[in-house]
Design brief:
The structure holds 2 protein chains of 2 kinds. Chain A contains 11 helices and no strands. Chain A is mainly α. Chain A has one domain (about 1-195). Chain B contains 7 helices and 12 strands. In chain B, the strands form 2 sheets. In chain B, strands 3, 4, 7, 8, 9, 11 and 12 form a 7-stranded mixed sheet that branches. In chain B, strands 2-1-10-5-6 form a 5-stranded mixed sheet. The longest helix of chain B is centred in the middle third of the chain and has 8 residues, at about 95-105. The chains are: A mainly alpha, B alpha+beta. The interface between A and B is medium-sized, with 29 and 27 residues. Chain A: Keywords: Cell membrane, Electron transport, Flavoprotein, FMN, Heme, Iron, Membrane, Metal-binding, Transmembrane, Transmembrane helix, Transport. Chain A: This is Protein-methionine-sulfoxide reductase heme-binding subunit MsrQ. Chain A: Belongs to the MsrQ family. Chain A: Its cofactor is heme b; FMN.
Chain lengths: ~210, ~260
């Protein structure tokens, strides 16, 4: 069953993941131009972009635990998932500074250092930036697998910060962002609870990509 | 409904009926802005009575028509500034709260007015969760309550107040953050000590008793320096928030000598 699924997945081209991953953006653009957003479209655009970024962040964090637990390998798509997350994060930040803040640079700068939710969000974004920039084969080769892998551990810090960013921006404690924080922490804990197999031979062909 | 025009109205263009009735904070029906429009229809608003008590001469149960008789209605077009840093302009129809309190007869010892929202979890689904300490409660100092800008609203544009906006009767205090303007009021109590307010009790470092709009006193987690006007479009930008939401000429004297950074 797992082998059958992995065979299928191997035949799925990476661009298909990109195409699927851009559907939420296409829907958002569609809603924006057809009046499908709510009374405050600025807030809806910001929320939907931020939310989608979080979903792809969680998806990319889920790849390794899924492999270790079930042997189902989505490793080939992890780079696309991470870059999709970053794409939505960039758009989220752009929407904030243009539509929400109206390019009030001074207020934005003051707010980022003063407001916990902005500090969490911006820190997470800055942590993801080097990961996106080094997400190509050339960087991987130049840095060496060890250093590259070490750098990309920054995501373990960025992910909980993203959830805190959401929680701290609200007036009360609704369940949803707390739930996502729990999911993130669970995915991180799984990495410790189910360690990487020492023998590479058990996963022929995909050992090199393990991280 | 029609209300006599008032010189206290702003000449800024009001938001549309659709905007005002589909973008609400009324946590009794859920925390999303769309929840009140979606779920408030379940609330029974007729019959309705408001219990006026405490330090008053004529305590008792008052009907909406007693409190806001049709011939006393005024139109008040007010700016509304939410603590979340967005704003609207809303054409309310209602009566000055002072006229209602005078009807009940304020006793000399009264210093504050406490308000309470309906508590009816089977019709108000948000109340089934402990998001806030139900029922929602708010309060004003007596001079704030007697101020001519302070009204009890029963209408919006020419309609009776829609449920999601606090039907059948709600408070409107335009120089304070929106959460002070308590909705669907069932209880008004005159007291001699400062009443409990729901948000203040929940998070006193973030929400004060006065909650006057003030760009210089930030909410600890977000700035109050600017606001976004709902309906301004995708690139409408932000406008500067004005002290007392622009009603300083009328109300600043109420707070003469007070440190508003401490009494936020």
């Amino acid at each position: 069953m797992v082998r059958w699924l992995n065979d299928r997945l191997r035949r799925l081209p990476v661009w298909a993941v990109w195409l699927g991953g851009l559907i939420p953006l296409a829907l958002l653009v569609w809603d924006t131009f057809t009046g499908g957003l709510g009374i405050d479209p600025v807030r809806d655009i910001e929320f939907r972009l931020g939310r989608t970024a979080l979903y792809f962040l969680i998806a990319s964090l889920g790849v390794t635990p899924l492999l270790r637990l079930s042997r189902i390998s989505l490793m080939r798509f992890r780079r696309a998932l991470g870059l999709l997350c970053f794409t939505y994060a960039v758009l989220h930040v752009l929407a904030w500074l243009s539509m929400d803040m109206g390019f009030l640079w001074a207020q934005m700068a003051k707010d980022i250092v003063k407001r916990p939710y902005l500090l969490f969000g911006m820190t997470a974004f800055l942590l993801l930036l080097p990961l996106a920039l080094s997400s190509n084969n050339l960087s991987l080769r130049r840095m060496g697998a060890q250093a590259w892998r070490r750098l990309h551990r920054l995501v373990y810090l960025a992910a909980p910060l993203v959830a805190l960013h959401w929680i701290w921006s609200l007036k009360t404690f609704p369940v949803e962002p707390l739930l996502w924080l729990a999911v993130i922490l669970a995915l991180l804990a799984l990495r410790l609870a189910v360690p990487r197999p020492l023998r590479r031979g058990g996963l022929r062909g995909s050992g090199k990509e393990m991280a | 409904l029609t209300g006599a025009p008032s010189s206290l109205s702003t000449d800024q263009p009001p938001n549309s009926f659709e905007e005002i009735t589909n973008y609400n904070n009324f946590y009794e029906f859920g925390t999303a802005k769309e929840d009140p429009a979606r779920h408030a229809a379940n609330m029974t608003t007729d019959p309705w009575s408001v219990e006026i008590g405490g330090l008053v001469e004529r305590p008792g149960s008052y009907g909406v028509e007693d409190i806001a008789p049709e011939n006393a209605l005024e139109e008040r077009i007010y700016r509304l500034r939410c603590v979340e840093a967005w704003s609207m302009v809303i054409p309310w129809i209602g009566v000055p709260l002072a006229s209602v309190l005078q009807k009940a007869g304020v006793q000399p010892g009264a210093k504050y007015v406490a308000f309470e929202t309906l508590y009816r979890p089977d019709e108000m689904r948000g109340q089934r969760y402990p998001i806030l300490d139900w029922p929602y409660r708010e309060g004003l100092r007596l001079d704030e309550a007697m101020h001519p800008l302070t009204i009890l609203a029963t209408g919006l544009y020419s309609d009776p107040l829609p449920n999601q906006n606090g039907a059948p009767i709600r408070l409107v205090v335009p120089w304070k953050y929106g959460f002070k303007s308590i909705k669907s009021v069932v209880k008004i109590t005159l007291t001699d000590n400062q009443p409990v307010c729901t948000w203040q009790k929940m998070q006193p470092s973030e929400y004060g008793f006065f909650a006057n709009v003030n760009p210089e006193v930030d909410h600890p987690r977000w700035s109050q320096a600017t606001e976004r006007r709902i309906g301004a479009g995708l690139f409408g930008g932000r406008q500067e928030t004005v002290r007392f939401n622009g009603y300083g000429d009328q109300v600043a004297s109420l707070y003469a000598g007070m440190d508003l950074a401490k009494n936020y």
